């Protein structure tokens, strides 16, 4: 399944280069808005570590580094083409590291996953849902203070949905996170996109 996803995003990168469209987002503004929701999780002023699961070409790194220059950022992605692009863009920064893979190599203070649960291609919803929940376990296991992720919402208008995308139930995933990972969980569903973000605060 992840091989299929890696091939999909590699094709996007070849077509559009290291840009929002290269990771299947429509605009840079939408990408920045998503990052703002995710990083609302951060509750430390400086000197923390981040795992970016499904980092793409590493766009979250400069977004964070502008606010937190001392951040230690680690990005991983299943598509080697994405990691190659990220390393070319940001590999000269000593506080940014990129690896190919589906699991972070180290535990970090915060874990983020942006967009990795959207493109299911031809895989059944049940199979994709199981992958999503298994990946939440990974985020939980590799983050000390908390993690955040986003999904397309099942509240999307039926006539605007794509057959190859996965639209998750925000109520169900909120319950999963609340009962399985932490007492402090936030569901953000009010920022103007057909998606939601969940923040899981473990401390």
Automatic annotation (TrEMBL):
<feature type="domain" description="Methyltransferase">
    <location>
        <begin position="51"/>
        <end position="139"/>
    </location>
</feature>
<dbReference type="GO" id="GO:0032259">
    <property type="term" value="P:methylation"/>
</dbReference>
<protein>
    <submittedName>
        <fullName>SAM-dependent methyltransferase</fullName>
    </submittedName>
</protein>
<dbReference type="GO" id="GO:0008168">
    <property type="term" value="F:methyltransferase activity"/>
</dbReference>
<keyword id="KW-0808">Transferase</keyword>
<dbReference type="Pfam" id="PF13649">
    <property type="entry name" value="Methyltransf_25"/>
</dbReference>
<dbReference type="InterPro" id="IPR041698">
    <property type="entry name" value="Methyltransf_25"/>
</dbReference>
<keyword id="KW-0489">Methyltransferase</keyword>
<dbReference type="InterPro" id="IPR029063">
    <property type="entry name" value="SAM-dependent_MTases_sf"/>
</dbReference>
């Amino acid at each position: 399944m992840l091989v299929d996803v890696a091939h999909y995003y590699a094709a996007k990168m070849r077509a559009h280069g290291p840009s929002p469209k290269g990771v299947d987002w429509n605009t840079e503004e939408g990408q920045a808005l998503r990052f703002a929701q995710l990083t609302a999780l951060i509750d430390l002023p400086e000197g923390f570590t981040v795992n970016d699961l499904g980092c793409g070409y590493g766009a979250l790194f400069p977004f964070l580094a502008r606010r937190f220059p001392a951040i230690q950022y680690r990005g991983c992605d299943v598509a080697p083409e994405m990691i190659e692009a990220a390393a070319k863009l940001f590999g000269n920064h000593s506080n940014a590291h990129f690896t190919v893979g589906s699991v972070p190599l180290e535990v970090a203070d915060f874990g983020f996953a942006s967009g990795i649960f959207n493109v299911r291609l031809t895989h059944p919803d049940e199979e994709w849902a199981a992958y999503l929940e298994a990946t939440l376990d990974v985020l939980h296991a590799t983050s000390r203070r908390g993690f955040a992720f986003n999904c397309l919402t099942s509240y999307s208008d039926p006539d605007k949905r794509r057959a190859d995308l996965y639209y998750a139930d925000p109520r169900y995933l909120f319950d999963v996170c609340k009962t399985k990972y932490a007492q402090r969980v936030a569901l953000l569903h009010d920022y103007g996109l057909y998606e939601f973000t969940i923040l899981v605060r473990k401390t």
